[in-house]
Design brief:
This protein is an all-alpha fold. The protein has helices at about 1-5, 10-40, 45-50, 50-65, 80-100, 110-130, 145-175, 180-185, 185-205, 210-230, 235-250, 255-265, 270-310, 315-320, 330-365, 380-390. The protein has two domains: about 1-75 and about 145-390, MFS general substrate transporter like domains (Growth Hormone, Chain: A), CATH 1.20.1250.20; about 75-130. The chain is about 75% helix and about 0% strand. The chain is globular, with a radius of gyration of 23 Å.
Length: about 400
């Protein structure tokens, strides 16, 4: 995304973001399919090992084909800023993942993690204010567009990745879809996402504006989140797919627009860091959201399994989580009980989607519109290029 912003003016970027969204959607569909095949027929470890050859191909293409205007200049890497950011995020993920499930909220470990979050974030803020070349430049946060889009990326990333994960869990444990086929059932979510991205890319290209699309997209996504509450043990797979498609379409109108908005709001030299912060916010929202919602899900699943599944079968929530194959040897009546337990636990998770969706709508309303930039880094002439490249590392 940073490369696109370097090569294409923001006014033209909407169309190219649409193309990028199509590639993202294709890979997001292929990923669960391949991962399901690995899980079912080989080892889940191949879901990670496959990234090695793919990464090598990507690096080769970039090294051989990418040509950007460049000017070498000395830089200092903000090692302390990076270390503090990693420490803070690590504490946040474990805090939300372990709290209330693996460890009681009042346990010494959870309290220690909470203290670590406060300490590391405070230290990070102090460090970034003093660092010669901060990894998170404070000047980026002076833009209201940057602040709003970064927050929106967290909430949107949470909803998008959580929807993929928990709709897949619903299909496998409530409907009974095989893990290898679950990726196919996620196609409507990804198709809705890419359709929304393609449409909004064309519209932004014509109008030169972007604010209205995140507003419309978050409202549609909120409607999809409300429809998720209707799913229960008696619902069909088509209902989950239709609902997921609506939510995905809403997300498609938002996600790529947020990247364009922040790229357009910062100086040319900050496009790279602004893009990475935006993508990090989305991934951070997905990681923390999955951890937090997973903790809620695990807690409610344990309650419902104890209530609904006969004790003589000796099943616990831990026996079922992430193990759809466990259902194959159970009597039909017990399978129904397990399906209802999963459905009830997922209902609580989908209920938590609602305030997150409402917060996304509120943030979208706060987003300020601005004319899209008519030039790119590659267009910047002479001295302008030197200023734009100041603070950026680009290899010829």
């Amino acid at each position: 995304m940073a490369m696109l912003a370097d090569l294409v003016p923001a006014r033209e970027l909407g169309r190219w973001i649409g193309y990028s969204g199509f590639v993202f959607a294709f890979s997001s569909i292929a990923g669960p399919l391949v991962g399901g095949v690995f899980t079912e027929h080989a080892s889940w470890r191949w879901a990670f090992l496959v990234n090695l050859p793919l990464g090598a191909v990507a690096l080769s293409i970039v090294a051989r084909k990418l040509r950007l205007p460049a000017r070498r200049s000395p830089h200092r890497i903000d090692w302390w800023g990076a270390a503090l950011a990693i420490a803070a995020v690590t504490c946040i993920v474990f805090f939300t993942s372990w709290g209330g499930s693996r460890e009681p909220w009042g346990s010494a470990l959870i309290v220690l993690l909470g203290v670590g979050i406060v300490v590391f974030i405070t230290a990070l803020v102090v460090r970034e204010r003093r660092a010669p070349e901060p990894i998170l430049p404070p000047r980026v946060f002076r833009s209201s567009v940057a602040r709003v889009t970064l927050l929106m990326n967290v909430t949107v990333g949470l909803m998008f990745f959580a929807a993929l994960y928990f709709v897949s869990a619903y299909l496998q444990f409530v409907i009974g879809v095989n893990p290898g086929d679950a990726g196919l059932y996620l196609i409507p979510i990804m198709f809705g996402s890419v359709l929304g991205t393609m449409i909004v890319g064309r519209l932004m290209h014509r109008s030169g504006r972007y604010r209205i699309y995140p507003i419309v997209g978050t409202v549609i996504a909120a409607g999809g989140a409300i429809l998720l509450l209707r799913l229960d043990a008696s619902s069909g797979a088509w209902e989950a797919l239709f609902t997921g498609g609506i939510l995905g379409f809403g997300m498609g109108l938002v996600m790529q627009v947020l990247i364009l908005a922040i790229q357009n709001s910062v100086e040319l030299r900050d496009i790279g860091v602004a893009t990475s912060m935006s993508m990090f916010g989305r991934q951070f929202g997905g990681a923390v959201g999955l951890a937090l919602l997973g903790s809620i899900f695990n807690d409610r699943l344990a309650v419902w399994v104890d209530r609904l599944v006969p004790a003589r079968f000796g099943l616990t929530a831990a026996d079922l989580r992430g193990k759809p194959e466990t259902l194959r040897g159970l009597p039909a009546g017990v399978k129904r009980d397990v399906a209802v337990a999963f459905s009830n636990a997922l209902h609580t998770v989908f209920l938590v989607f609602i305030p997150i969706a409402v917060l996304s709508v509120v943030l979208a309303l706060l987003l300020r519109d601005a004319p899209l930039r008519e030039h790119s880094l590659a267009d910047a002439p002479g001295d302008d290029l030197a200023v734009a490249l100041e603070g950026a590392i680009l290899e010829p």
